[in-house]
């Protein structure tokens, strides 16, 4: 096996990148081997999957920052569940651009760090921050023979709508320069309030602007999904309800990824 890499991103904050990448990692790990990587210094994916919020201390010098700077992810992978591993992050990830400059590392630095483990996983799921910085470009620039894909998160807002073309431009740039295997898996509507009428307009706009890209599954806003960050996955009595919309999403994602062969253009 060579891992398929899925990067969740959008430069608008709060569109459910961390929640969606965390739940996707959890669901995929039910049957396959998954490495989740937190590329956001906020460490939300790290906290979401480990229930550990004291990330600065607990993961001090044990994060994706060190993995990238040393060019080897192996010492920084922690096991957090059956078939589920994580490379955590914390606030020190903010120093990544400066440290990369000092070490003269290029945008293939995450790829180099992951090369030794690429055959160990079926999936590598990456959460990114709400910016088009190194933390987003590095994952998109990471080539895998298994294929690499971007999931564009969209919360139905105007702010996010205008962030989509900018994100897709970054995807194109990474594809041209570093990663010919990169493809956009799709645009995922999330945090959607079933009662909000303007969503229909946004659905139409996305379908017109980006034919074929919208995932059929829509992730609706749910209190039980929000509470996952508090309750965690283990022994959570409302887990089934919290994951309701993500189960069809993960099925659809797998189907799309299997249909899009690596190297094929969008
Ligand atoms: N389907 C959902 N239903 C209800 N709340 C949700 C859902 N998905 C995410 N949330 C909540 O919305 C907020 C934003 O989600 P999240 O932190 O995953 O977004 P993000 O895109 O990662 O944010 P950032 O840009 O800051 O990294 C969080 O409080 C999260 O618990
Ligand atoms: Mg986040």
TrEMBL record:
InterPro entries: AAA_dom, DNA_Partitioning_ATPase, P-loop_NTPase. This is ParA family protein. It comes from Heyndrickxia acidicola. The lineage of its organism: Bacteria, Bacillati, Bacillota, Bacilli, Bacillales. CDD domains: ParAB_family (cd02042). It holds the Pfam family AAA_31. Residues 3-183 form the AAA domain. It comes from the Bacteria. Coiled coil: none annotated.
